[in-house]
Amino acid sequence: MNGFTGTVLFLIIWWTALFAVLPIGTKPVVRADSVSGWRGAPEHPRMLRKVVITTIVACFLWTGSYLLISSGAVSFRHGYFAEPDD
Fold first, then answer.
1. Residues 55-79: pLDDT tens digits?
2. 22 lies in a domain?
3. Into how many domains does the chain fold?
4. Cβ atoms 55, 14 nearer than 8 A
5. Has residue 37 got a pLDDT over 70?
6. Which residue from 55, 74, 72 is spatially nearest to 13, judged by alpha carbons?
7. Residue 60 falls within a domain, yes or no?
8. Where would you tag: which of 2, 5, 46, 64 has the fewest CB atoms within 10 A of its CB?
9. In angstroms, rounded to a whole number, what is the distance separating the alpha carbons of residues 1 and 86?
10. Is 11 in contact with 67 (CB distance < 8 Å)?
């Protein structure tokens, strides 16, 4: 895996992990809007904490995927996932 591929893979993993981490610890606004009744965004979203957690999770997942790809266990050039030579 070259640097560009590794960076793109990390960004994809990071964005996916962000959407998994965003709802953790989120509580809605206690008082709803008097006109619409909508509660909207949380009062304390704690985005910095969620970005840090997302980065840590993405680093672990990227390291695992890098080791799996580098090991050759999963390859599209030869083996089970390879295209037939017809």
1. 999 999 999 999 998 887 777 777 7
2. yes
3. 1
4. yes
5. no
6. 55
7. yes
8. 2
9. 27
10. no
